[in-house]
Amino acid sequence: MQRRPFLIAAASGATGMIAAVLGWRLFSGADAFPVTRTKEEWRAQLTPDEFAVLREAATEPAFSSPLNDLEDPGTYSCVGCGNPVYSSEDKFDSETGWPSFTRPIKTEAITTRPDPRLLGLATEVRCSRCGSHLGHVFDDGPPPTGMRHCINGIALRFETA
């Protein structure tokens, strides 16, 4: 399990540089979401770190979010629009340094797509309501789904049940 954070960081860094050189844009405007805002409106609503993660698909440092160790019952919602995306019932410790879940609170709560920054080798998770980048999903999770939704804590707001 110790290799996973290193491999993720190495792959993210290398492919992120390639993507920057090629000028890829994650939010090209091709996707339509129920909640839309201008770049200026997003900047006014979010902190600089939230904007970097949610709107520019940055990744917060591993083990930096207090939500990573949170075990209270409740719901995790998108910071960008308040859409409930994950339940504490599906949270587990993946030992990666990011809050991890076996599944979304409901299938329609998120959208996924191949991550162009990672040359399509990883699957990006976005909020289905506002299109904000939440994290990535991998197929190395525990039962019952076998999936690991590895989500940036800064992209989530927790509400106690």
From TrEMBL:
One of its GO terms (molecular function) is peptide-methionine (R)-S-oxide reductase activity. GO terms for biological process: protein repair; response to oxidative stress. It catalyses: L-methionyl-[protein] + [thioredoxin]-disulfide + H2O = L-methionyl-(R)-S-oxide-[protein] + [thioredoxin]-dithiol. Its EC number is 1.8.4.12. It holds the Pfam family SelR. PANTHER family: METHIONINE SULFOXIDE REDUCTASE (PTHR10173), PEPTIDE-METHIONINE (R)-S-OXIDE REDUCTASE (PTHR10173:SF57). This is peptide-methionine (R)-S-oxide reductase. It comes from Jannaschia aquimarina.
